Amino acid sequence: MYEILFSAINIAVFPAWLLLLFAPGWRWTGPVVHTALVPLALGAVYLGFLTLGIVFGQSDPEAGMSSLAAVQALFSHPVGLLTGWVHFLAFDLFVGAWISRDARRRGVARALVVPSLILAFLFGPTGLLLYLIGRKLTGKAGWSLDESGQVVA
Known about the structure:
It comes from Maricaulis maris (strain MCS10) (Caulobacter maris). The protein is mostly helical. It has helices at residues 2-22, 29-33, 37-54, 68-74, 78-106, 110-123, 125-137.
């Protein structure tokens, strides 16, 4: 059952990543990827797994976030692992969508955006790292993450 849930969750986010990679300007990309639709769905799944783990005891009794051993115990149960996985998927997609929007707004070349998105999909923060360094080196933006491009103090 856990393996089926894992596969279903992965399949559910894959179309959003495909839209970011291959159709960033398509009229359906915005409503699917740049609205709260996917984050709300992933948030609900996350809350469901979190509830199973905390309220219904579907977790290791030593699980927690107070030490490395407690975090290890958290991920030792399939529900804890799925909870963490949904967390990664939600935030990685959020970052990928931000990269896509920021790149379109600033005119960043797709040659930088595509590898950044692939890395964000596969290895989360490395995609953001590549994108931020790349847009800085190409003169498309500074280090600010502000949507307007203004430096925030």
